[in-house]
Amino acid sequence: MAQAKKIVLYVLAVFVLYTIITSPKKAADLVEVGFEGISSAAEGVGEFMTELVR
Q1: Which pLDDT score is estimated for 13?
Q2: Which residues, 6 or more positions from 27, have their beta carbon under 8 angstroms from its beta carbon?
Q3: What is the pLDDT of residues 2-53, one digit of tens each?
Q4: CB of 27 closer than 8 Å to CB of 19
Q5: All residues at 6 or more sequence positions from 19 whose CB lies less than 8 Å from its CB, including other chains
Q6: What single-letter DSSP state applies at residue 8?
Q7: What's this model's pTM, rounded to 2 decimal places?
Q8: Sign of the CA dihedral with 5 first, then 10, 14, and 16 last
Q9: I need a labelling partner for 5 at 20 to 30 A (CA). Which of 14, 37, 48, 50 fits?
Q10: Contact at 8 Å (CB) between 12 and 19?
């Protein structure tokens, strides 16, 4: 099982590097979308906690 995790991690790293090298604009767009999603999730958790306290 540990071998499979290592292989998946290496494949994922190679894919990320390949994407960054071949199309940096697209990679930047994907990172931006990811950060927007994380920001929205954090905002939602904050609103939930605020309403929970009230």
Answers
A1: 93
A2: 16, 19, 20
A3: 898 999 999 999 988 988 899 989 888 988 999 999 999 999 999 999 999 9
A4: yes
A5: 26, 27, 30
A6: H
A7: 0.57
A8: positive
A9: 37
A10: no
